[in-house]
Amino acid sequence: MKTIELTIDDKPVVVEEGTSVFDAARMSGISIPVLCHAQNERPIGVCRVCTVDCGDKVLQASCVRPAENGMKVFTASDKVKKHRKMVLELLMSDHPSPCARQRVSGDCELETQAAAEGIVTPRFSKRVSPRGQDDSSLVISVDHEACILCDRCIRGCDEIRQNHVLGRRGKGYNAGISFDLNRPMGNSSCVSCGECMVSCPTGALTNKSIIRTVLPGGEPVGVEELKQLPFFQKVSGTFLELNKNAVIKRHFKKGEVICREGDYGSTAFYILEGQVDIFLASMSSKQAVAQEAPSLIEMFSNIFSPKKKPTSGSRTGSIPIDATVDLPLDNPVAQLGAGDIFGEMTCMSLYPRSATVRAKTDCVMLEMLRNVLDVIQRNKTLRAEIEKNYRKRALEDHLRTVPLFASLSPDFIEDLAHQVELVRYSRGEVLTRQGEQARNFFLVRIGFVKMVEDHAGGELVLAYQGKGGYFGEIGLINRGTYAFTVTALDNVEVVRIGVDAFNKMLERFPEIAASLRAVATEREAHNRRHSAAVSAMSLEKFLNQGLMEANSLLVIDLEKCTRCDQCVRACSDAHDGVTRLVREGLRFDKYLVPTSCRHCRDPLCMIGCPVGSIRRRNSLETVIEDWCVGCGLCARNCPFGNITMHELPGTTTQKAAVTKKKATACDLCQDLPEPSCVYACPHDAAKRVDPNDFFKEIIGAGTLKAPALDSGAHGGKR
Amino acid sequence: MRIDKTHQSWAVVSAIILGVAILLYFPYAVLYPGGPSGNTWPGLIYGIIGYAMMLFAGLMGARKRVPLWRVGRAQVWMRGHLWLGALSLPILLLHSAFTARGPLTILLMTLLVITVLSGITGALLQHFLPKRLTASVQLETIYEQIPEVREQLLSEAGGIVEALCAVPEAESAVVAAGAAFGAGGPAADEDAGPELTDDQRANLQQVYKHEIFPFLLNPEKSGSPLADVVRSKAFFEALRRQSPVSIHEALGDLESICEEERQLIEQRRKYLLLHGWLLVHVPLSITLLVLGGIHALVAIHY
Amino acid sequence: MARIRNTKKLGQRVNRTYLKRVYPIPQWRRILTFVFIAASLAWLGFHAVAHDQTPYTAGPLTAQHAFLGKKCAVCHGENVSIGKRVADPQCAACHDGPIHQASQTFNPACISCHVEHRGTMRLAGTADSGCVQCHGNLQTQTGKLTIAASVKSFDSHPEFGSVVSGKDASGLKFNHQKHIGEVGQKCADCHTPAEGAKGAPHSHVSPRAFMTLPTYEGTCMPCHALTIDDKIADPLPHKKQPDELHPMVEEQFRKYIAAHPGDLGKDGTPAASGAWVAFKVAAAEKKLQDETCARCHAVVAGADFASAVIVPPQVPSRWYTKASFDHSAHKELTCISCHVKAPKSTVSSDILVPGIAVCRDCHSSGSSSAGSNCSTCHIYHDWTKEKPVDGKYMIEQMTRSTAPHSMTTPPAVLTPAQLQ
Q1: Which end of chain B is more exposed for a tag (fewer CB within 10 A), N or C?
Q2: Which CATH superfamily is domain A402-534+704-714 in?
Q3: Residue ranges per domain, chain B?
Q4: Which pTM value belongs to this model?
Q5: Are C311 and C299 contacting, i.e. CB atoms less than 8 angstroms apart?
Q6: Is there a contact between A586 and C6 if contact means CB atoms under 8 Å apart?
Q7: Cβ separation A683–B133 shorter than 8 A
């Protein structure tokens, strides 16, 4: 990539080619005022507030002006300031100050900037044709008068949510935003996701306060209070107002555990006061259940109370993770203080909490849902900050929990943490390619990878590596090439250790070297044995259907199923007459995988929910809280069609009373001990299973589960 | 429900109950003055047990109406239904001392025998048929949805044929435009539809109109060659020979639509078999329960 | 553009409200259920309206009771109670059932033996199990058991009482061997079934099934006439003691000599009529006492003939006193096939009725048996103690189906109003 050099306000800056002047300034710490350019949207340069002097004939809107080599940019010269003030004054002359947003949360961007420029009463007269208000939507009130035609809402609707509802209407003084072909908002195809009003810099689109997000156990925080915090400064007040209670204040006593390792969650914490300790603790290992032949008496009792098979961790609220190192609970790994944020890893990656956090002193926290975090991260400066924290913590945490590194000294880990990288791969990306020179050692932190041996006739999947798995050691130890091609199966995060750091580690800790060598030998032998045994067809199908993604999969044994539809009926009865299960889908072996939520390990559905209502509580199950606004994004995101939008009756008892639709997906009948579909199956055909356990025999024993749960399979136990 | 190893305990318990009932019957039949009959105390007890079994079996239907009630897993009920239902016949035969003389009792015994026999038939069907259904109908859908799916298949096939035949002006215009601009040429070519001569197009339309469309519209009735696997294969083979290679993939789609239709026919046939027996079993069993109740009341009365 | 088949597409092609619609199979199931139940209830209702309770009967009634078929309550009563059976008083309204034996330890209910609703079977065809209840383990009020403590079937039945006694104590002298062998008589010459004789009431044994006792007049007299003299044709009457016969003998001779005075003194007889009579009487009476009467009867001699006594024979009219044997049911057999000893019996003390072993030749237990139920031979009720039953019903009551309730407790006198 070519780089270019330029100066901004006499400060030399180097950026990649194609960077806008606005971004170049941002990266060098210079902030340029802007209205129409939201950082998470494509710049269009209509408001001209970000106008700068690039040495051109006329002043340029910095958000759309690409930086050029040798360019001299002035962002705050008198000429620029004068122009900017004029633009703001012209915008203000039309603005019904104070607008709805200014009145409610006091953060109308136009009015804030105008005030900063000292504009009180514009010299120009108001436009003649009032554009009016639109109160038809039950969720959002539209004040066309306050609209500055920045198009942020239109881009939000199109680009971020891809709903394509908003557009422009009219010309000249009558220009404004329109829903569909200029219909009242309430009658349009708007799904009320709220993105437009979150994007809006002024009070043109404001919230009618109807979403009742409920995060338990805290007290509400006012928008003003939040806006005081640097962390929330860039977040739209409309959004905070809309998602009242998506951020709550919680108090923790000294010694209280705030979140526990292994728990699932959907919230992040921001420390207002006090300090916390972060620990790593080991999780209990899997318990084997011996099966014996039933005695006659047991047979009798079996009839009336069939033995409950021990279900996998999904019901107990924790899943066994691979950490077999037992760090003492009172040995703090890290401390965080006021202004720090934690828990964002779980919130963003949707994986279990990787550490336990306990209050060191009495603490005050802000707990927030993912949607808040999402919006915060739209500001790229803040986002970079969070990412940095995340990577640092993720790395350190991970290195400490890998059994392989149990014998490493803490100082070496500290040292190692600086030499390794946390790298993300998305589905289908290749991590290592068979035959390439081995340069790195990989530790899987999140997600699944498949290890494939390339053959002339095609590829042969040898194994899957989940969290805690590692690869690359064969090539590194032999100083040769990678032995397999490794591909990401979903969103994967790996810790990448370079060859130098790796060798240094082996030198200093010969026992690690020894165990790695043993693993390498074992693995090669295993692969040779395995090559013959695996039924490649089933595996391929298993992968293509995304079954390994699932935590809890509904399967119907088609050789037992009489197609009586009792499962569907039960589901429908359990959920107000709308079934969340459709007995239709692809087959795997003799099993039908019907349309019903799989509670994925890496749930795509949760990404982008504007109100954070689709989330995990403390366990694996994906739940849709009833503050869902029915925007349909999760249903579109789900690759398996397991989320459906269904029309709500016009009742007011729902917490989101006036939304037209609501997303529904299998909730595993949370309040009941067993999902109704399984309970109601008269033919012993429907089951909720962990696919990796359940299909072990079909897809080849030990391929999937070995790395995920049994990290010792390749030598950890010796 | 598939009868497999998991039924072992039920089978053992049922066999024990049946054995005990039969063993007790012999001394009762020999020793009881006046001989065995439904109106002796032992006979009455057999009757009560037998009716209770029938009632339990009958409650299966009620249980299905309230799938949410946590009154035992449905499959436990199903096992009970199968085994106790079957057991009710021998127990009630012992109750009646293998005779039925009154009009009502003759009717009851007839109903019971038919109900149990139909139940056994159904159990056998449910044991064997799902496996065959699974094997023979790979593209299964929900039975109730078959009409909808057929409509979708019909419109899908219609769409394919329409796309194949709707070439002339629009496309040639695009090609012309692409040629005019020079640069757009390759893109336009890729988007271009299959090149069919007018004859081929007319032929395809004819074939669709006279063979494929009627079959898809009413697959169960028509004696179309497409309803038969071998003839359908030959049909599409012939069609492919008459058509350029560029549309072979689309023809393959059409063929797979027909294949799906055939499987749906097969599914419907097997489904009707799998559920049809209930038309005998359910009404008769409910009638049996009602009349059995009346019989019990009258018997207790007199 | 190969056709894509993935989970999402498959799930979305389904109309999720399909469960709310009604489909043919469940609908027909409902319709058929309704039809079947409605039909059967209509059937029952139709009978109920007609006050006809036939559908509920446990089986067809015997012919004698068949007319009661529509009115269960006549026998079963009206009151609802679990396990209620037809009580004895209900039967006693029409039938008397005398007890079995005075010393029986308990009195079983009528229905324990008389089982109804078994079609045309005999009501009295009681199963052995009923008898074996007691006779399988007999208890008496005195605690003494004289014959057998346990009879469970014909196989364990004791020998017949008559046979056990071993001796015919009738006192009549009769030589079967002489009559059959020398004279050449047939059994039926003397032993014939009774004509119009009365059988035991309520017995299935026909009145003609028993052999009547041979009488002197009907059987013996042709050969063994009681004549006293060659010249006097009139025989003496039978069944008279000597004291009655003496005047008759005297009278006969007196009449004769009065009519035939020529015979006086003839053949060395006295010539005086008084002496002649006395002479003749003495001779005749000696012959009577020593030959004519003594041939069959035991005669106890006295001072003279008139004071002698003829011992009346005690011939039993029935040998199987507790059972009813039916000769007519065995008429295809020859007499001697059972009465084996009869042709060779020279003395009348021989027991000629067959013993139980002979019966068991045919009436053993087992499938090829000719039947050996208790009721084949025995009758439960002691009909000698039968009390008369007064009829209480009118024909209308018995036959009309519309007035079932008035029958449960029959009124002593039915008023015409009640009959309406």
Answers
A1: C
A2: Jelly Rolls (2.60.120.10)
A3: 5-138+277-301, 143-274
A4: 0.69
A5: yes
A6: yes
A7: no
